[in-house]
Structure formats: C-alpha cells, structure tokens
Request: fold
Amino acid sequence: MNLAESIKEDYSLKNLNTFGVDAMARYFISAGTTAQVYRLFTECDLVRKERLLILGGGSNLLFTRDFDGLVVKMDLMGTEILSDSGGMVEIKAFAGQNWDALVSYCVGMGLGGLENLSLIPGTAGAAPVQNIGAYGAEISDVLVSVDCWDRKSMQMVTLSAAECHPGYRTSIFKTSAKDRYVILSVTLRLTRNPVFNVSYGALEEEMKRTGTGEISLESIRNAVISVRRKKLPDPSRLGNAGSFFKNPEVTGNVYHELVKTFPGIVGYPQAGGSYKLAAGWMIEHCGWKGYRKGDAGVHHEQALVLVNYGNATGVEILDLAIEISQSVMKRFGIELEKEVNIL
Reply:
C-alpha cells in the first residue's frame, strides 16, 4: 500500500454513515489488513498531525459538521475458527466484518450466543465499543478478547473482556481509553449446546405468534429479525442509527414515585433494586412519536429512533434530539443520555 496515493482528500462520508448525513472528510483512507494498519500508524505523518476518526459501519454516529482530519475506514474482513473443543468454539472476527453476516454465519454453523443480536447494524469491530445488546443478550456475554493497535505504546495488544470494562452500551473504548485503541478483531466464545434466551417480552410474543414449534438458533434469529423489522426502520431505506437514547436507570425509590404519577410508565427491575426506564415510552408520551420537522423526524413505530427522511443535516437531527430531551426532563424529571456518538 502506497500511503500517499491511498489517502483521498475532501471525501464524502454520506454513504458511510447510516443517518445518510452529508459530511466531508478532509482526508480519508481505507485499511484492509492488519499490516496496512501497522504501516498507517507507524509511517503516516497525517496520523500524527491530524485529528483521527476510526470508522466502522457508521451505524452509531451523527455528523453535525465536516470532519477536519483523517478518517480511517476499517475494512479488515473475515472470520477464523481458533479452537473447537468440548462443545465450545472460539471464533475471531475481523473489525470490518459485517455484524449480522457474522451472526448468520455462526447460527448456520450451529453456534449459540449471538442469535439474539441478529440484524444489529454495524461491524464486528464496533460491537465491543458499544457493548451492543438486544433481547436480553450483550456481546460481553460471549466476548473473550479484543485485538487492538495501541496508539499510546505503538504496538499491537490484546485486551481481555474484563479489561474492556463493558457496561450498558459502553466500554473502556468510549470512556477512559477513548481514541487510544484501534480495534483490529474480536474473539468470541460460542457454544454448540446453547441455552436459549427467549424471555424478553417482544421476542417471546413473536415466537408464540409464529408458532414455530421447537426453539432453535434459527427460529430465534428469525424471530429477532421479524421483531426488529417491525419496530426499527431499515437504514438502507430510511436514515437512522437505531436507538438514539439510552434507557435511563433510576433507583427503586425514584421509580416508585414515578409510578404514582405515571401508572403506565415502563420500567425493568435491575440487580441491586434499581429500574431501567423505557426511554421510548417517555418520548412517546411527550407526543414525539411520528413527529417530523423538515427531513428530521421521530419514527412512527418506535419513538426511540430519530430518522433522516432525506436531506436533514446533523445539526437539525441533534436539535430535535435536544428538544426531545428537554421535554422528557420537564415532564418526568429524567435526563436522557444519547446512545449515538455526536461528531
């Protein structure tokens, strides 16, 4: 790879973010191998001089302006079986691998652990950053380790799952080590003898509705896909980044006080006596569901999802998000935290 020739200037990012926001990168390069990443970070002057953005599938960010720096698109593809013993299989997925394609591959191989995470947009490399989760499962449940380029020590390192400090839609990659590590691959431990998890309300209802009979990895994956397609818009057809806000967690006392005023409020009990509130329910009950201003709007089926109907700017979408947050605070006294990264 000739670094100088591979770097593009004034590069459009419109097709590289699922909101479909029109933004430009001052410099742009695609990295397709670990060797290319190594050369980029050891030989490229722009990496040392410019602001840096590592880009995966662009499914969890909102551009509010052009990016005045270097965007590195992680296009490392493929999967490898590392071990297969005693019914447990360790599999490595490279950072640019499409997440749902990985889930489909594992389900097809009879490997359990990812089926509840079907149809989540994005790439394998981005999954531990957000600690993606859905329908009672998170990637941290099966994560073994993450291979990274450490920009501080200037070497390849492997972080254990514990060292990634996974939390609710967060990890060390979003907090204390933000911008330090460039994820190259993830290693997951899956099983040939899965314990199926279909207790999540919407998933359980879909399984009963379809009457598929025996529960299997494939039937769970199909049910998850069906539920997601009913509730969430396809980013290839309608610009969005999935859930825009996190579900806030409150103490048991706060939750029970809210129930007195809002008997229908949705809350899920957590370990330690706290409750996770359904942000979408609160947003909907503030009257935002289906709202549209210009090309920025709130999805008509899921109030937690903000959408770009065509030509909305990132600023317009962010302004709408701020209005929604303020209205939820005014009515419920609850602060909503953005799940989407704002750039």
Observations:
- The CA atoms of residues 283 and 324 lie 7 Å apart.
- The two ends are 29 Å apart (CA to CA).
- The first strand starts at residue 8 and ends at 12.
